[in-house]
């Protein structure tokens, strides 16, 4: 296996929001990679490998005061530089307009009332205001992502009308979560601490399968009439899987996971993880090159274990395995 052609970099753990469905433990005091360290640790890989997609995320990446320097350093060396953001800081639109990015992913869980209930009062209008400041003609895609959960199960189809015509694509993604038993059994399988798995536990009130099923069908129908591309994740999800997804048991039918082969996640402190939800470090870019970590003994043993015993119980409700 060659070095990865798709890379995700969390540039910060800081975030000004506190969303109920978020899997990250934000605002911890971390020793984040500096611009000089990102250059020293990652540029050699970017200059010697064809990187198709490089994603910058956080936390909220726009809270990094040097986000412009990071983007300017990476952009010329990758085919596509994509920024993931809530776009809800007051100056986000003006800041993004100056960044040399190719694509933009923005979190929208509304319409307004539902979005603000999840992310904070006034954030929905701020997102739309910031979207209007961005010149879409210079971007390959403006992608709005809506997490489908119990918080918005009855209202998420209305996102399409609320954001039209400010996006090229709107994606609806079923909330990723796990039962405590899933976490415990996954930790036993990997012989690690349960804190290794960074994802929300079972919601107090999981979404109602019949409501989600009805509204997924509605967004698909609205998408056929809209100039905005509509996607639902997991792709091609059936009514039966929706019922399993928000039910109390473990889903039995899972495909293999491509993320652990195709897209390393580099955390704010330089640790390399096989998956956003499995925070078991395979190495640190401060100590060794990314390509060596991604083809090294630790990650190969991890992949082999999953190949022999199947995906982890926590993979049951992840779009990558559905």
UniProtKB/TrEMBL annotation:
Keyword DNA-binding found: no
One Pfam family this sequence matches: Radical_SAM
Keyword terms: 4Fe-4S, Iron, Iron-sulfur, Metal-binding, S-adenosyl-L-methionine
GO molecular function annotations of the record: 4 iron, 4 sulfur cluster binding; catalytic activity; metal ion binding
InterPro entries per record: 4Fe4S-binding_SPASM_dom, Aldolase_TIM, PqqE-like, Radical_SAM_PqqE_MftC-like, rSAM, rSAM_sf
Domain Radical SAM core: 1-225
Cofactor requirement: [4Fe-4S] cluster
Matches recorded under Gene3D superfamilies: Aldolase class I
Protein name: Radical SAM core domain-containing protein
Organism from which the protein derives: Natrinema ejinorense
């Amino acid at each position: 296996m060659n070095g990865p052609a798709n890379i995700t970099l969390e540039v910060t753990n800081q975030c000004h929001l506190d969303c109920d469905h978020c899997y990250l433990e934000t605002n911890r005091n971390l020793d984040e990679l500096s611009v000089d360290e990102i250059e020293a640790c990652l540029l050699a890989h970017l200059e010697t490998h064809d990187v198709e997609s490089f994603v910058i995320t956080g936390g909220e990446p726009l809270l990094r005061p040097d986000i412009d320097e990071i983007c300017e350093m990476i952009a010329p060396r990758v085919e596509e530089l994509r920024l993931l953001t809530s776009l809800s800081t007051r100056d986000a639109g003006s800041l993004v307009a100056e960044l040399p990015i190719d694509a933009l992913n923005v979190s929208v869980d509304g319409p307004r009332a539902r979005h603000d209930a999840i992310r904070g009062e006034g954030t929905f209008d701020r997102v739309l205001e910031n979207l209007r400041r961005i010149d879409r003609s210079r971007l390959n895609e403006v992608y709005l992502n809506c997490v489908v959960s119990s918080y918005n199960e009855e209202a998420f189809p209305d996102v399409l009308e609320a954001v039209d015509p400010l996006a090229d694509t709107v994606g609806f993604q079923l909330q990723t979560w796990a039962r405590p038993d899933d976490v415990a059994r996954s930790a036993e399988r990997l012989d690690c601490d349960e804190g290794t798995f960074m994802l929300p536990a079972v919601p107090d009130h999981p979404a109602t399968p019949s409501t989600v099923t009805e509204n997924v069908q509605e967004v698909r129908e609205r998408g056929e009439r809209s100039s905005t591309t509509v996607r639902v994740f997991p792709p091609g999800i059936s009514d039966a899987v929706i019922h399993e997804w928000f039910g109390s048991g473990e889903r039995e039918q899972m495909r293999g996971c491509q993320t652990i082969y195709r897209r390393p996640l580099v955390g704010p402190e330089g640790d390399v993880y096989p998956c956003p939800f499995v925070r078991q470090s395979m190495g640190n870019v401060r100590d060794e090159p990314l390509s060596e970590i991604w083809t090294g003994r630790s990650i190969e043993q991890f992949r082999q274990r999953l190949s022999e015993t199947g995906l982890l119980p926590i993979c049951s409700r992840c779009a990558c395995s559905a």
